[in-house]
């Protein structure tokens, strides 16, 4: 087998840890090849993306890059919305965008995936999508973090602005409502929910975090704002998004818990807050997260019912 490229299929430079993992785990590519063949067989069927248990299981094992746009649009309902509102995205450009918002977006464009070798050609499209979304949803408008979400979708959609707009709209308004508003009420509430789940399942780890003086909200705000983009390795974060588009918000909680559970022994060994912060910063270079197959298998093994989340959400519904 040829040596793995230092640049992945999305245009991102692979870290040394990922290169080493690929070299030492040739069966990883065997799994990817089998996965691609299975998806191609599914795609040849009549109405291949009809919601079913089989399709859910396929998605949980990862969607190939060449089918991600199609699967995301279908599973999120965005394809249907595009058909119902074929001119909505284009019509948004008839509006006058607010200068303050436009200026904020322009500042963040160069900061979005600067090391990605393909992303220069998407910068104008990223500006267009973010400006259109800010005009369409003035309650959210523009919030730092949306640039990473929209940027990643643009890469997957090969620059298709309309598809990116609708998929961004789904993630922000349906999957993570009130995460990106000025108050971030939904984000604060859901981090409290995850914190409560950690207290229940990993009380010793929670006590250690309190002892070190680093609140979970400081660690997790970026996870939730970016929906794990710029946190997990690229392919792993996209595997999480496959599930987000298919199964919804519960995946945010499962993924957060999985990260903490995987790091629990490391957290207990940490001696100071700087070492702890470094541990969380290096998630994207940790082989336990680089191995997207095993990570997602662990995510889906966690028992967590929607009802449990809903009860805890109600308990923290008064957060402002």
Automatic annotation (TrEMBL):
Record's keyword annotation contains Nucleus: no
MF annotations from Gene Ontology: GTPase activator activity; small GTPase binding
Official protein name in the record: Rab-GAP TBC domain-containing protein
Matches recorded under Pfam families: RabGAP-TBC
Keyword Heme: no
Organism: Chironomus riparius
Biological function: May act as a GTPase-activating protein for Rab family protein(s).
InterPro entries per record: Rab-GAP-TBC_dom, Rab-GAP_TBC_sf, Rab_GAP_TBC_domain
Domain Rab-GAP TBC per the UniProt entry, residue ranges: 62-248
């Amino acid at each position: 087998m040829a040596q793995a490229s230092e640049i992945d299929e999305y245009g991102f430079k692979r870290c040394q840890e990922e290169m080493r993992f690929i070299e030492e785990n040739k069966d990883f590519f065997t799994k990817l090849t089998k996965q691609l063949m299975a998806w191609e067989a599914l795609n040849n069927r009549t109405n291949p993306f009809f919601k079913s248990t089989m399709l859910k299981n396929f998605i949980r094992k990862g969607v190939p890059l060449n089918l991600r746009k199609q699967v995301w649009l279908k599973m999120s309902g965005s394809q249907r919305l595009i058909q119902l509102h074929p001119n909505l995205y284009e019509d948004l450009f008839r509006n006058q965008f607010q200068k303050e918002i436009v200026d904020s977006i322009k500042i963040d464009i160069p900061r979005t995936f600067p090391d990605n070798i393909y992303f220069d050609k998407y910068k104008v499209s990223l500006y267009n999508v973010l400006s259109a979304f800010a005009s369409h949803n003035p309650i959210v408008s523009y919030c730092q973090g949306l640039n990473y979400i929209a940027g990643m979708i643009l890469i997957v959609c090969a620059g298709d602005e309309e598809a990116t707009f609708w998929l961004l709209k789904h993630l922000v308004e349906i999957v993570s409502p009130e995460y990106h508003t000025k108050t971030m009420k939904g984000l604060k509430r859901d981090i409290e929910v995850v914190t409560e789940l950690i207290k229940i399942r990993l009380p010793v780890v929670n006590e250690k975090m309190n002892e070190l003086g680093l609140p979970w909200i400081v660690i997790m705000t970026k996870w939730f704002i970016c929906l794990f983009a710029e946190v997990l390795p690229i392919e792993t974060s996209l595997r999480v998004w496959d599930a987000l588009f298919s199964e919804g918000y519960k995946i945010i909680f499962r993924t957060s818990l999985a990260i903490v559970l995987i790091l629990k022994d490391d957290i207990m060994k940490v001696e100071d807050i700087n070492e702890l912060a470094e541990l969380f910063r290096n998630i994207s270079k940790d082989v336990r997260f680089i191995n997207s197959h095993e990570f997602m298998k662990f995510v889906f093994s966690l028992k967590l019912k929607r009802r449990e989340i809903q009860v805890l959400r109600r308990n923290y519904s008064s957060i402002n």
